[in-house]
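User: Please predict the structure of the protein below. I'd like the answer in structure-token form so I can feed it into my own downstream comparison script.

Assistant: Understood. Taking the following sequence of 142 residues as input:
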Amino acid sequence: LLDVSGYERFTIPVIAEGDASPEGVFCDTETGVRLIEAEEWMSRPNDPAVKDPRCYGVRVRGDSMAPLLKPGRKIIVSPNLAIEDDELAYVQLHSGERLIKIVHIQPGGFTLESYNRAYAPRYVARGDVKAIHRIAYVRTLK
């Protein structure tokens, strides 16, 4: 039997890859004012990796992570999970660029690698990174 007691419907905001909040915050915690609009809300799966109340969903754009993550696929990102070497992460640079990549930790920064070999790996200095959040869950259905 599958335990679904932790399943919660429509509790995770989903936004497109280029619009996601790097802080994982959608409302100002003091005033309650919404900081960013969600495209939709997705249900929280019964998975320990997504118990973080600051989790947010991201809809994948582009093909840099195909065929692993196809455009339109939804992922759940957790700002509170530690980033480790060779893991999938959602990265926002100070330039405003937002990326989903495989992260390789390097001295002084990170090498960001696409799954699609048509895109070359890219080194970014730690100081160029505004936020880097681990991908906690990949929704297999669009």
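That's the full token string. The chain has a mean pLDDT of 80.
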